[in-house]
TrEMBL record:
PANTHER family listed in its UniProt record: ACETYLORNITHINE DEACETYLASE (PTHR43808), PEPTIDASE M20 DIMERISATION DOMAIN-CONTAINING PROTEIN (PTHR43808:SF25)
Name by which UniProt lists this protein: ArgE/DapE family deacylase
Ranges that cross the membrane: none
Natural source organism: Salinicoccus bachuensis
Keyword flag Hydrolase: yes
Length: 418
């Protein structure tokens, strides 16, 4: 049976590469996910799956603890699910991937165009190829290969594609809230063929610093908002060192710097020879599993306001601090669970070695499944330059991931429910 499955994956390989090239050609950044989601839904229909798609309803998902606060609407930005029904008595499974990607940044930093995927030296390059449209291709073609090989599954399988994994996680919550649940779930994020066993929580914040503007010839009488913002950023750097200097969570003991703080966006000033009157920056802060992100919000705000009191201007004109996007809790997986053992065995069958565990210093949508009590993990391909110019995926690792997911489906869906 293994041989027939692998032959099917080999025979479908060119089709899988074409599918990945196609979905990676869509610029599916925040707010632009509709077109690729329509393509995916039609693709799943052509496979004979029962499909559903709908926009996120914030009234329904806002009750969950992992709900992230959006500053935008959800009209015409659907989540998609395709279901292959089974008449057996095996465990059901969700294979989920997020379709949203981060901005490609300046095109001058790319060798080629970010949304024109290209293959070179066994790699495919393009924004979203690694994070994580390649994982979606592995999900779909693992299922197609099993069917081509004549393998029957005893449990239902769902192929889910969601939005906003990169900013709120509300897309995953929307499908689960709508009843698209299962006995287990797998997200093929690019884990370098490791099993994700823990991840940090994440919050986003926006800081607005006000100055006193003037023409540059009177700069000494003004207050430069950009320069004052740097004082607040220095305080945020101090907070980063503070939290990483504390006792580490057991899952991250071996990591030298598990709680990353990043200033990712900044805007200040309107004219080169005018003293900026306002500067706004956005940052991301990590926290350990078991910590309430809302407590971290309070701690960060208190830290920055206290540090601002050391500056005469900021003491009288404190920065405005608001939170949006991620309110993401950390996650820990039971490595003695059936889901873990099944994935580990699938990895062993493909790679011929024991799998490594991954304590991830960022966040994924596994936390949404955890909130619903569904066993879940991430396991996916290798590559590089994720969230950076010239993002790429190692194509041989994509084929191995497709094989591992196929074996995982066979074992999980053909094991009987407790």
């Amino acid at each position: 049976m293994n041989e027939s499955v692998e032959k099917a994956i080999d025979s479908l390989w060119n089709e899988e590469l074409l599918f990945l090239k196609t979905v990676a050609s869509y610029d599916s950044t925040l707010g632009n996910e509709r077109e690729v989601q329509l393509f995916i839904e039609e693709y799943l229909k052509d496979m004979g799956l029962q499909t559903d798609s709908f926009d996120v309803d914030t009234d329904k998902v806002s009750k969950y603890r992992n709900y992230g606060q959006p500053e935008w609407g959800y009209k015409d930005r659907p989540v998609v699910v395709g279901t292959r029904k089974s008449e057996g008595d095996g465990k059901s499974l969700i294979l989920q991937a997020h379709i949203d990607v981060v901005d490609a940044g300046p095109e001058s930093h790319w060798e080629g165009h970010a949304y024109t995927p290209r293959i070179k030296d066994g790699r495919m390059y393009g924004r979203g190829v690694l994070d994580m449209k390649g994982g979606l291709a592995a999900n779909i073609f693992a299922l197609k290969a099993l069917e081509a090989a004549g393998v029957s599954l005893g449990g239902d399988v769902q192929i889910q594609t969601v939005i906003e994994e990169e900013v709120t996680g509300n897309g995953a919550l929307a499908l689960l809230e709508a009843g698209y649940t299962a006995d287990g779930a797998l997200i093929p994020e690019p884990t370098q063929h490791r099993i994700l066993t823990s991840q940090v929580g994440v919050i986003y914040l926006r800081v607005t610093v006000k100055g006193a503007g003037a023409h540059v010839e009177r700069a000494e009488q003004a207050q430069n908002a950009v320069m004052k913002a740097y004082k607040v950023i220095e305080a945020l750097e101090g907070y980063r060192e503070h939290i990483n200097g504390q006792e580490k969570h057991p899952a991250f003991k071996s990591h030298p710097h598990p709680l990353n703080v990043n200033v990712g966006k900044m805007k200040g000033g309107d004219w080169t020879s005018s003293v900026p009157v306002e500067c706004v920056f956005e940052a991301r802060v990590g926290c350990y599993p078991g910590t309430d992100p809302k407590d971290i919000q309070k701690e960060v705000k208190s830290w920055l306001l206290k540090a601002s009191e050391e500056d005469e201007w900021l003491r009288e004109n404190p920065p405005e601090i608001e939170f949006f996007g991620f309110n993401a809790h950390g996650f820990e997986m039971d490595t003695g669970s059936e889901l873990y053992e099944t994935m580990a065995a699938s990895h062993r069958r493909v790679k011929g070695s024991d799998v490594e565990n991954l304590s991830f210093t960022a966040t994924t949508d596994v936390r949404a499944f955890d909130e619903f009590g569904i066993p879940v993990t991430c396991y996916g391909p290798t590559g590089g330059d994720m969230h950076a110019p010239n993002e790429y995926m190692d194509l041989e690792s994509l084929k191995d991931t497709t094989k591992a997911i196929a074996y995982f489906m066979m074992d999980w869906c053909n094991s009987r429910k407790d």
